[in-house]
Specification:
The structure is a homotetramer. In chain A, helix 5 packs parallel to helix 8, helix 7 crosses helix 8 and helix 8 packs antiparallel against helix 9. By secondary structure, the first copy, chain A, is an all-alpha fold. Chain A has nine helices and no strands. The radius of gyration of chain A is 19 Å and the shape is globular. Helices cover 70% and strands 0% of the residues of chain A. Chains C and D meet through helix 6, helix 8 and helix 9 of C and helix 6, helix 8 and helix 9 of D. Chain A binds a DNA duplex through helix 3.
Chain lengths: 205, 205, 205, 205
DNA sequence: GATGAATGAGTCTTCATTCAT
DNA sequence: AATGAATGAAGACTCATTCAT
């Protein structure tokens, strides 16, 4: 029912995978050559043009698709948790997992593509942002979150903290000298979120 | 005394300005041609190569320089304010000013270059981040900020909020439907920062 | 069985031919542009780079190939003669033929490439020099040449005389005032060679 | 009285010297940049154009001049010897001396310029060739050489032998595997010349 | 459908030459 | 006279896209 489930043509799938492989290996998207991608995908160069109008379109579709795949994974993972803060915690865990798999050089590129670009080009509503809205709305209905803040601000704050965390981790991995460990920063960020947004009746839980 | 004050060769200055002009007009840095830059600068193509090894170096130097110029402006502006939260407020104002001058298409690029890249490549410590550290340390010494948080986390939280604000504004300008106005978001973000980090004895002031 | 026989890709062949055409028309190899060569070959500029890493490689391969072709022709021609001095005579004839086909401006270039360079870069043993060694060894075995001289010196002397002849002819064609005709010079050179190297029992043959 | 004696402008002299230095260091003449030459000469780039129309002219004049200088040296050296074969021997010695001073990479270039080019462009009669004519004529007048050969052929043969010797030495220095030593080749070449051209009455001398 | 050889527009970069100082 | 900053024509090379097979 979701476009992610739709079977992709095997060639298209191979192309999407090739783009992601190269990305995770630290290749900048703008520097990916069509020949590299098709070679990696194990298909002929011309074949890419059977499925896409241009290199540009191929890249955009590949990244779009990957976002949907990740959003779907995130949704599934979040289903494993009932409590709101557990879900938030789980989000941080997933970020850790993704960033660990990725070459240092790819981290910035990845954040650009999956954090920044969706933020700026809202028209193509970011799939991951939708997840955030979803759990925020749910938590509000469940009374876990304070009523006074609009969802929009809560989501903005949450994604801001996630972004802060990810960028801090990336900088540390990149050799930056830091006073705090990523773990400490994570505790600070989660505590801060809890203090600001969690409904008081948390205590009776 | 600062390298920003050093008189640049007029040709170099023209080149730097040309890069910034193009950037503010929404041209992606990676797509800027040497010919475009030199044409805009009003000099011959070869002249760029009298001062820079390559297109790459020209672009890097131009962006580096611009960051220093901006950091210097920020420092000067911040001197006009005594109280910490006034300085923070001033930072938000300056972000508004910069982003207003910029074409829609340039906003993302600008954030990439002046927010994200410095975050990821810490070795070349971001000039703007240094300003943040500076005012945080000063505020701590003055007793305006809670002692319990390390400077590193405070700076991270502050830059996270600034980034959230900027990206929200950009999205709104870009036509995104939103419940809140940028002004409201700004209030939320500043309040949140105040609640989390400001020392209690604020009241007796 | 020889690499010259191997069918070249038609594009490569066209490129090699184009280089030779330009060379024979008097164009200096170092001044040949890729665009000129491909245009002459009737193919696209990019195509040259499908087959060669660089302009440099294209030129080197083209000249290498041409040398092999000529060496092969020379070998074949030499098979038509049994007696050693007839073969030497034939070599002079072939030089005449080649140089006649060539524009005045190309003669020096041609000698540089096919005489001098191989002399200096012996590692890539000159194909034509190999022919000389071959007929000298054969003649020695057949008793036509004196035993007292090493093959190396005989070949050196022979190629020296050929070179003297060719350069003399070139100078005359170029308008140099000369006392002797090329024909007379040729006689002198061949007589000299005969006197120095031919075995005495020549007469009883 | 000779143009070599005429005092050159110090700038021109510096330029000529710079060209020779670069040449002897193995720099190909066609790859010498005006900036390299003027830098080496210790003068401004524009200054070269005060004295020469173009880079081309500068290079041609520099090489011409150098040939004259060498021809003059050769003439002077030859004056130290009375007997013809001593002079020839001396020529070989001088070639050895020159080639020894020169970087391996420069040897081919040098031979091209000072042997081949003069051969092909006779109009600008080679200074060194003039020396050869001079000693041949002198030796003939003195009865040291056979009358039967025209001077032209004798000079051609002599220069051919010198060229053979030089190229052989260069190849050996360049690592070529050889049966003979340069010394042996030299003996063969000189003996050959002696046998072919020296008048019989040598013995009674 | 699939291919990959062929293409050539588009770029960076070099360097001989000029000319204002 | 001497300079060297400025120039821009020229040329090598890349790579997205096409199209005949």
């Amino acid at each position: 029912m979701n476009s992610v489930e739709e079977k992709l043509s095997p060639k298209v799938e191979a192309l999407y995978e090739a783009v992601m492989e190269l990305l995770l290996e630290g290749k900048e998207v703008r520097k990916m050559k069509v020949s590299e991608i098709t070679e990696r995908a194990g298909i002929g160069k011309g074949t890419a043009y059977e499925y896409f109008e241009s290199r540009e379109e191929l890249l955009i579709r590949a990244l779009e698709y990957q976002q949907k795949v990740w959003a779907k994974n995130i949704q599934e993972q979040l289903l494993c948790h009932n409590e709101f803060m557990e879900k938030v915690n789980c989000l941080f865990d997933m970020m850790d997992n993704i960033m660990e798999k990725v070459k240092k050089e790819a981290q910035e590129e990845l954040c650009n593509i999956f954090f920044l670009s969706p933020i700026f080009r809202r028209e193509k509503e970011c799939e991951v942002t939708k997840c955030l809205y979803h759990i925020v709305e749910e938590a509000k209905r469940g009374g876990a979150l304070k009523e006074e803040f609009p969802d929009e601000y809560i989501v903005l704050a949450l994604s801001g903290k996630i972004f802060s965390y990810v960028s801090f981790c990336a900088a540390v991995r990149d050799g930056k000298q830091s006073v705090c460990t990523p773990g400490q920063i994570r505790v600070y960020l989660l505590d801060s979120f809890r203090m600001e947004f969690l409904a008081e009746r948390k205590e009776d839980k």
